[in-house]
Amino acid sequence: MPLVALSPGAPHRVRGLSGLPGEMLTNALNDEILLQGDGQVRALIVSGGNPVQAWPDQHKTLKALSDLELLVVIDHRMTATAQLADFVIAPRLQLEREDVPNVMDRRFPAVYTNYAERVIYTDDDVL
After folding, report:
1. CB atoms within 10 A of CB 33
2. In the chain, at which end, N or C, are there fewer CB atoms within 10 A of the end residue's CB?
3. What is the pLDDT along the chain (127 residues), one digit of tens a residue?
4. How far is CA 94 from the centre of its chain?
5. In order of start, what are the domains of the chain with their CATH numbers?
C-alpha cells in the first residue's frame, strides 16, 4: 500500500504538473492564480515566507498576488509580500512564547529535548 503523503497529488490545471496531495508547486502557483475558471486560486495565506522575493518570475508573482481576492501574511517583518497583503498578522517571536523546539531532535544520537521559557511577556491576544 503506497504512502498517501508521498503519492503525487492531482495534476494542476497548468502544464499538468503535480506535487504532493494538498500542495501547490510554486512554479505553477502564479499561473493557477491568474488562470480563470474552476479551481482558480483566489486566496492565499503566507506563513513566514516572501513569495515576491522567492518565487520565479517576480513580475508575474506581483501580478498574481495583486489579483488575489484575499492575501494574508503571517510574519514579523514587513516584507515585499506583506506590503501587498490584505491582512498582516505578527506572530510571537521565540522569546515571547514557551517552546519545545524539535528541529534538531532527530539529529542527535540519543534522546534529547529542550524547553525554553518565555522571557518577554506580551498580551495574550497575540498569535
Report:
1. 23
2. N
3. 455 555 677 777 888 777 777 777 888 899 999 999 998 999 999 998 999 999 989 999 999 999 999 999 999 999 999 999 999 998 888 788 887 776 666 677 777 777 778 887 877 666 6
4. 18
5. 4-91 (3.40.50.740), 94-127 (no CATH)
